[in-house]
């Protein structure tokens, strides 16, 4: 594949959390690895600026076949890089040259608006060394293969200093050098200073450790399926959350994991094998086409729905100013449409008790708006449960109860940007005990009234009931 197409594929892989830039570059078949790595890193560094220029120039609206990541790479090369090189890029280079004047003008306008003269000065604070909030390196201990004590001992033997369980976020913010600790909230999460690279670490290679951002550990933890449960992971690849679910279930029960993308499912199969997951059935399927009436899913009580999203919460896409570099309206609309269809569909599974809806987006359209609409459409059958009430960053209060959702961001929680909502089926508790029935049987009309009152009660189930 040509340089630019490869770079776009790596960026897409990083955005959908298939792996790090380094691992995806090495996994590609592209021979000039250094060249590809440098191009991807630089494009990612300028992602917010590039998105802003692309949006203002209307490039994706004019060139409907041009995918967003390829557009970023090509516009980077055109405006900020060395100009187009080699045979790569093909017809897209020609296409870009048609928009060159407009793109250059929009870049110049951005600089004027932000009062800077150099391209470098357009970079957001978080991309500069020593800039804004740095997200620590979080490492989930895979309890299917080891335990926290053994992992901690291993690192200590390697010269790391263990500082015990952190008591607050400040402990994480000040972590430096070869020190590490346990996260204050999540039980099996080790925390190292930002930029600690553990990709070549033997415990990671052996599947004892999973390199996973803290916010991305929340969905499985909050779904909390017990061992023996039947679970659907609706949009599962590349599978970090699936492996977390399997660990919580101690490999007992069944996870039905679906994804549309064959390539991502192949990486997922490798990831799950390495993590020792044996309770998962992988299927290359459109979740929207998985029938809730299928006898195989009649016992499913837990669903994790982590659908494709804009990825606007990923640190590399933090926005410099509100609105700049945000995904286009059209893209958000399309994503939110799919997210809502998937959520509506998931809520039709007959035995479902609890569902987690999560995205790595900061956009209200993909988060609170989707949740609000799904709650309205399900006609009171489900309600939101409070997700970790002590978590500091809550959902935007655009409807009553939205604060039950949680948000995450580098500044507020020292994690990537994230959103989680917990849906729980509203139960109609039995109104009377059998003994009471015997002593005073109410009329059917009274029973109906009582049932309606209970169903409408605003009480919210605790997250981990
Ligand atoms: N939960 C995954 C994890 O933790 O590793 C990440 C999921 S990623 C955010 C979204 C996934 O949804 C992508 O792998 C994409 O291929 C998949 N997807 C998109 N549309 C889908 C559909 N209609 N049915 C099933 N999977 C879909």
What do these coordinates show?
- This protein has 465 residues and is of the alpha/beta class.
- Residues 125-132, 317-325 and 436-465 have low confidence and may be disordered.
- It has 3 domains: 2-125, no CATH class; 132-211, Sun protein, domain 3 (Alpha-Beta Plaits); 214-425, Rossmann fold (3-Layer(aba) Sandwich), CATH 3.40.50.
- It contains 18 helices and 13 strands.
- The chain has helices at 3-15, 21-27, 33-45, 47-57, 59-62, 68-80, 90-114, 148-157, 169-173, 202-205, 214-223, 240-248, 262-274, 329-346, 368-377, 410-413, 434-439, 444-456, and strands spanning 137-141, 161-165, 179-182, 189-192, 209-211, 230-233, 254-259, 280-284, 302-305, 354-359, 382-385, 406-408, 418-425.
- Strands 6, 7, 8, 9, 10, 11, 12 and 13 form an 8-stranded mixed sheet that branches.
- Helix 3 (33-45) crosses helix 6, helix 4 (47-57) crosses helix 6 (68-80) and helix 4 (47-57) packs across helix 7 (90-114).
- Strand 6 (230-233), helix 12 (240-248) and strand 7 (254-259) form a beta-alpha-beta unit.
- Bound molecules: S-adenosylmethionine (SAM).
- Fraction in helix: 40-55%
In the predicted model, the low-confidence regions spanning at least 5 consecutive residues are 125-132, 317-325, 436-465
CA radius of gyration is: 24 Å
Mean pLDDT equals 86
Q: Give me the number of helical elements.
A: 18
Cα shape? globular
Question: Which structural class do the helices and strands define?
Answer: alpha/beta
Number of β-strand runs? 13
The biggest beta sheet is recorded as: 8 strands, mixed
CATH superfamily of the largest domain: Vaccinia Virus protein VP39
| CATH-defined fold name of the largest domain | Rossmann fold
Named CATH architecture of the largest domain: 3-Layer(aba) Sandwich
Taken together, the total number of domains comes to 3
Q: Please state roughly what percent of the residues sit in beta strands, choosing from under 5%, 5-15%, 15-25%, 25-35%, 35-45% or over 45%.
A: 5-15%
Bound molecules: S-adenosylmethionine
The CATH class of the largest domain is Alpha Beta
Straight-line N-to-C gap:
51 Å
